Amino acid sequence: MRLRSLCYTLLILLLASCSTTTVFIVRHAEKVDESDSTHLSQAGQVRAVVLADTLANRGIDSIFTTPYRRTRQTAQPLSQRLGLPIVSYPASPTSAIVQRLERIRGKEALVVGHSNTILDIAKGLGVTPTLSTIASGDFDNLFQVRIRRTPFGKSVLLTEKTYGHPTPP
Length: 169
Description:
Blueprint: H1 2-16, E1 19-27, E2 31-33, E3 36-40, H2 42-55, E4 62-65, H3 69-82, E5 86-88, H4 95-103, E6 108-113, H5 118-124, E7 141-150, E8 153-162
Parallel strand pairs: 1-6, 4-5, 4-6
Antiparallel strand pairs: 1-7, 2-3, 7-8
């Protein structure tokens, strides 16, 4: 009887140590132009709604953005739709958000960053994107990083997609 109880306890502990976390990483949507890089353009506002449509049913429970207006505006439609707060993280160093994401277990998160940070965030989580840089006019990448933890180790899988091709109304 005692051995059975010990086996059940061990099994419960092993199962409790298993988790899958999914992190969606995107660059902020289109900005007005280089003279006003703080606000989203009409196309960027449409793309932000398309992002919300894309992720609305994915179980997102955490939304992280840098403190810049364009990243917050990109996440805002999803935040409003899901009733979730936007949590700010520093744009630099990327290790700050990576460490925060590494502590999350069994959750689904959106991270909105910048052309010079999103690839480093993905790499920091343990994957190697096929892109080496994000071009200045490239706003549609959607990186999905799935982190599966088991008692036997951790596996990390990257899925690279694009989302939406907005046109201004």
